């Protein structure tokens, strides 16, 4: 009577008390209701502005098309300010590179075009057989001199193609398929559920978070509503609907809320307006925003989702396993045991966060090192400060989520009826909840039977 929430075998093989289940539902149901209401209120109803792709001269590109390189060549041409070297000098001559490529689709499919490419791309390596992306500029969108054939790379009708980037669709597809196959092969049904959850997560980012931010919705509310919805789906899909998963979810939400509050304060106090890089400055211009502090804030919250989920589900699982091995332990002992695991996990996870962000910012760090700027200026500069805040805020949210999740899990588990190992008439060992008005027998994990049986016999002899 006193237990209503049961789980599978192993560490979940016991029942959760009525009080704990009621408490979990009392917190979870309003939380999910508020999340759904937030999604409905913040769901983008308008159509965000779409920017046009233009060249450096201001011409609008019609579209991007795939092409295959057939030849690459380079010549020496006069240096410009964009070729400035580390010592500040402008070289007299520099490399000017171009490739000949066959257009793979579009109005000029099969045509051979000449495309100018950055010298750095040529030096890094480009040659016949490489797949690239090119932008098409029809003659009617260009000025008179270009349309008349002044551009040596123009087609007969005056259409010009420009370099965009390499086409990386094939290797990325191979890696994605390999990743998905391995996850499902190793994780089986849980791996499949994790892949489905991952797909839904990216869908939420693309269809909800990004459009809502572009339409000017509150970034904290967008990040929290989207993140809680994503974590709810991911956790229950990958780990099943159970009290253990619910405890991990509540710990994750607590960590997210603390991360959001701290990120809001840090971005305001540190004047993180997101205008420290050329890409972000261009984004601010295209969106008409005075700064990108909201985007930075939302990014800080979302960046910690994965590692936060990892830590909280580990802590909940640790408490459940301790309870399975030692059903007599109370809240305090369960919390202390779970925190031992949490401290070990925390030490390695903090390094993971720090090195992940350092790796992402490595080109910026090298560039700063080239200029030999003072360390204090480097650390407080816009781009590095954003990475530092992202790292520290994520780490603090992670640190606080560990004891919170452990406490929630320990409180839920400690409230479950104590189990005694009894030997039934047929000689079979089973779990029976004591203090309840007739709990069902549950088969104990085989590895726990001998020790518990000896303890039971000793108790009877005493």
UniProtKB/TrEMBL annotation:
Q: Which domain of life is it from?
A: Bacteria
Translocase keyword on record = no
Spans annotated as Disordered = 433-462
Q: Does the keyword Transmembrane apply?
A: yes
Q: What residue stretch is flagged as signal peptide? A: none
InterPro entries xrefs: YibE_F
Which terms are listed as keywords in the entry?
Answer: Membrane, Transmembrane, Transmembrane helix
Give the residue spans that cross the bilayer. 21-43, 169-186, 193-213, 219-238, 245-263, 283-308, 349-368, 388-413
Q: Which protein, by its recorded name, is this?
A: YibE/F family protein
* Organism whose genome encodes this protein: Kineosporia corallincola
Upper classification of the source organism reads: Bacteria, Bacillati, Actinomycetota, Actinomycetes, Kineosporiales
